[in-house]
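Bug: token stream looks shifted between consecutive jobs. Job 1:
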Amino acid sequence: MAETKKMTKRMVFERVIQVIETTDVEDKDLLIEKLHNEIELLNKKNNSSTPTKVQIENQSIKENIIKELKAFGRPATATELMATETLKGYSNQKLTALLTQLNDSGAISRVVDKKKAYFSAN
């Protein structure tokens, strides 16, 4: 079975521009201009570098996670981190997601032992 690639808005707009350019359509230049404008709006939206409220909150939580991992002095699980005073209000899923992000960025290390993930500060 062939894998189909999902078309993004940008891809659709670019394809429509190609079709319009090869056909004799009324107001051809105006249509192309409008589509290029839509593509430019998508570019601006994707280049927005302002972090969201949740991203700012998550950064604070990540800093607390690293502090707690350093305080443990040994690899710890997400469940153990949940039991700490600073991280007790967060779910296992939330902490695991943030631990994964920290691991991917290289800020912490992850080791699996007997199907259990342990994290340690680098």
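Job 2, same session, no restart:
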Amino acid sequence: MIVPWLFGWSDPALGSLTFDVALHLGTLLAVVAFFASDWVRLIGAWFRSVFRLRIDDSPDTRMAWYLLLACIPGGIAGVLFEGDVTASFHVAPIPRLSMILMAVAIAVLGGLLFLADWLGQQKRPFAKIGPLDAAVIGVAQALAIFPGVSRSGATITAGLALGLERDAAARFSFLLSAPIIAGAGIKSIYELASGASAGAIQRAELIMFPVGFVVAAVSGFLCIKLLLSFLQKHSMRAFVYYRWGLAALVLIVALVR
């Protein structure tokens, strides 16, 4: 939303449902590919748990159910508030007040990330994540329905506040993204199929689809790899300063235009 707004790009294909589906699927491919071995274990453990009608004490079984638990708040938020968010932000031109609110959200989350990274104990590894952690991180993910609240930023912040190690918080955040992105992608594909049958899909949208898909997949994969490596040795300060800088840029442009 911010990039087209900053540069004044008005091509409707950039905000189209077709392009949105491409980005969803590309991002989903990146998460699934990077954590492929994890997903094989987690999905297998979940099905065994379902067939046995019990949740055993194996780490993979518990983690699979924790990920599903953490998805519930985001799913509820999407059903209840997606329409209102779309009406306020996914319009052209985006109202000035909406961009100011987005800048505030970006800055506030930067501040919360700073506090969580500074005050969090960061002693608990990935294997020590429990059901309460999953529920709290899931609520943080639900807040990302509001533009400016980064999904990964909100969930990593919650993980750090709960005392998780930096790379553990990031790992859970990225694994958690797959089900919610898949759900959003399936919904968008259904809407896209309905639009295609009605002849509402434009040629420009079809041309942009493979570009958006490939770029989202490649950049998503590289970002996950680089971030997990970065967080093993560094704090979150760089991302805090990035968010504050971005918030200032958006606020200044919104006020000057």
